[in-house]
Amino acid sequence: MAVTAFDSVVVNGPRNYSRLDSTIYNRARLSGLNVMVVGAGALGNEVIKNLTLLGLGAIYIVDRDVIESSNLTRSVLYCVPSVQQIISSRTRKAEFAASRVREINPEVRSVAIAKEIADVGLGVLARMHLVFSCLDNESARLELSWACRRVNVPFVDAGLSTTNYSSGLISLFPGSGGPCYACRKGRRKRQELLQELYGTEDPCWMRERRLEEQGTVSTTPLMASVIGAMQVEMGLRHLLTPQPCTLSEGKSVRVSLSPNHLIECFSFSVSRECSLHEGNVGEITKLNGRSCDDVTVAELILSITGETESAEGWLCLDWPLIVEGECLHCGQAWQPMIRKPRFQREGCPSCKSSDVIARHVVTAIENSSPRASMTLAQLGLPAQHIHEVCWGGSPASREYVELSGDWRDEQ
């Protein structure tokens, strides 16, 4: 992905990693790691900075937002002489943070992805060794946790408290054999999260919470530094040291520095009530020469089943797709072709109201459906994704597919 060039000074010259050689963070072990940081705000800045100084192989930075003046008291990577120009030009956080990685340590490859995490193909996540979540949105955390678990990539989530700006929480989710983000929640909270992802209408509590999330949350660079450092430590140590008998459990550390000093550690397991633990990605089939821009759903299904067009088959969707929406404020009807959380955040394309409702939601597209003639891109499915094709009634009658044409720029 091309990244805008910014006026800055690149720190050239050989790196001396000798102070790290006697630790588990030695250059030989870290230089081969690909990691992803999702969220480039206060916490993400600290995580990116630490990973860059350690000298990892590659850092993928995912954030769709732009840099604003309120970021400057908490985000060290954005504090440069040309910051006012950067703000006025609405520079993407991901792009500028990636450029700063290259300035601080040219030996680290950085990739900017200015998208929401659900718009990043599952194939990209599958190529990571570790994913760091620095998000402030629970539905996005749940989406990321589910995706990482599905491709068996460890996921480290962290957040700063919204009620006590001197506290935070770090949680490690080990991969496909362990719990997801929803498992760590209580029954009621888990139901609320799943309702937000799967439901076709919003209950009152969800609309109230969305309004609260639009308000200002107090955070400081002090706690972001503490929690960000612990997040990197927990994640890399999980990768680089033996983990006997811990791959089925998640673990959390809660830290508070005021009004009393507190460090609380606890573990958690897969919840039997959680519905997000099916369909981990298995062996992947490559469909050569095709991309999401030129292959239709019907063609994808036919290429896997090898049967006639009349044979039953369908494309399973990761999340429910809103195919028909309506604005209750102005009456506008449209075809969003996006998943539910994004549908609610973006609102009505005409009047921008958030008072919108999903009229038609699909979780799969059969090869007999009128939508099967649409390309994967037209359906809003991301490039570099791992697609799940099913046929018949057996759980074994499914296959996972990548389109090689989506990876041309990576080859």
Describe the structure.
A hairpin with a 6-residue loop joins strand 5 and strand 6. Residues 1-10 and 200-208 have low confidence and may be disordered. An 8-stranded mixed β-sheet has the order 3-2-1-4-5-6-7-8, sandwiched between helices. The chain has 411 residues and is α/β, with parallel strands linked by helices. The chain folds into 2 domains: 18-268, NAD(P)-binding Rossmann-like Domain (Rossmann fold, 3-Layer(aba) Sandwich); 284-410, no CATH class. The chain has 11 helices and 15 strands. The longest helix is centred in the middle third of the chain and has 20 residues, at 221-240. The radius of gyration is 22 Å and the shape is globular. Helix 2 (42-54) packs across helix 9.
CATH level 1 class label of the largest domain: Alpha Beta
Low-confidence stretches: 1-10, 200-208
Kindly estimate the percentage of residues that lie in beta strands according to DSSP. Answer: 15-25%
CATH superfamily of the largest domain: NAD(P)-binding Rossmann-like Domain
User: Which CATH architecture of the largest domain?
Assistant: 3-Layer(aba) Sandwich
- Number of strand elements: 15
Give the helices and strands as they follow along the chain: HEHEHHEHEHEEHHHEEEHEEEHEEE
CA-CA gap between termini: 13 Å
Tell me the Rg in angstroms: 22 Å
- CATH fold group of the largest domain: Rossmann fold
Largest sheet: 8 strands, mixed
User: How many discrete structural domains?
Assistant: 2
Number of helices: 11
Overall average pLDDT: 87
The outline comes out as: globular
How are strands sequenced across the largest beta sheet?
3-2-1-4-5-6-7-8
Q: Quickly give the structural class.
A: alpha/beta
- Summarize the amount of helix as a percent range: 25-40%
